[in-house]
Amino acid sequence: MSSDTSAIEEINEPKTKESVDELVPEATLMEVEEPVDEPNYSWSQYSSIPMRKKGKAAYKKMKEEYGDSYTQHSSSRKDLRQAFISRSYKALRSVVPIPPARKNENENEDYADVFLAHARLYVFANIFLIYDLKRLALENLHETLKNFELYFCRTGDIISLIRYVYGNTEIPDDGKEEPLRALLAEYISIEIDNLTKDLAFRDLMIKDETLDVTQRQSLLGDYMAAVMKRV
């Protein structure tokens, strides 16, 4: 872990200085170190700029300790976005005549219902085992997200989607990733700066009562994985 995020430094025990005249037990003098300020732990430490600086320092330290066996796995937002855009599915859109997703043009356009429509269709298809429809819904949501400009005042649209997805999907029994959650987790890693600034997103992972403890823990785990991609 980087020294910037290390635990609070311990204050040394007071040191005493004996009197010059050992025969006269004068009052001892105490030398106490200046108090150490506690680190300011806050969500802002996860913003991309300071986090990447800390990540580089941590990487250098780990590289010195473990040598060439240690490999850095961080990625820039640009790289992550390109990987997200390049996600490929079985080309159902090329079979089913569906127009491309429309890009939002300003911050006043509410896309919450658009996102939820795709997610609800996915959940419906998953329940009734309609695999082609499930894949198509996933592909359409991906197409919409990759063309969506996330203005800060529109983070609520994404939060509504995240709340619905984690509240209505489950991790498969075989331990494999849940496709819709995996798509959102990848999107979160791209837009982590904007999302983390929104108090509603923080509350969603910690105390939102619409999700149970297991669902919140799963979301928090995916969030931390997203953070590590940007470190």
Q: What is this structure, in a nutshell?
A:
This protein has 231 residues and is mostly helical. The protein has helices at 48-66, 77-85, 92-95, 112-127, 131-146, 155-168, 179-190, 192-197, 199-206, 213-230, and strands at 15-17, 29-31.
Task: Describe what this molecule looks like in 3D.
- This protein is mainly α and 231 residues long.
- Helix content is 53%, strand content 3%.
- It is built from ten helices and two strands; from the N terminus they run E-E-H-H-H-H-H-H-H-H-H-H.
- It has helices at residues 48-66, 77-85, 92-95, 112-127, 131-146, 155-168, 179-190, 192-197, 199-206, 213-230; strands spanning 15-17, 29-31.
- The chain has a two-stranded antiparallel ribbon with strand order 1-2.
Observed structural traits:
globular, disordered N terminus, single chain, 231 residues, two-stranded antiparallel ribbon, mainly alpha
Give me the secondary-structure topology.
Blueprint: E1 15-17, E2 29-31, H1 48-66, H2 77-85, H3 92-95, H4 112-127, H5 131-146, H6 155-168, H7 179-190, H8 192-197, H9 199-206, H10 213-230
Helix pairs in contact: 2-7, 4-5, 4-6, 7-10
Mean pLDDT: 76
Query: What shape does the CA trace take?
Result: globular
Helix content bin: 40-55%
Beta fraction = under 5%
Give start-end ranges of low-pLDDT stretches: 1-55, 65-73
Please count the helical segments: 10
Q: For the terminal residues, how far apart are their CA atoms?
A: 11 Å
Order of neighbouring strands in the sheet with most strands: 1-2
Which structural class do the helices and strands define?
mainly alpha
Along the chain, the helix and strand elements come as EEHHHHHHHHHH
Gyration radius from CA atoms, angstroms: 25 Å
Strand count: 2
* Biggest beta sheet summary: 2 strands, antiparallel
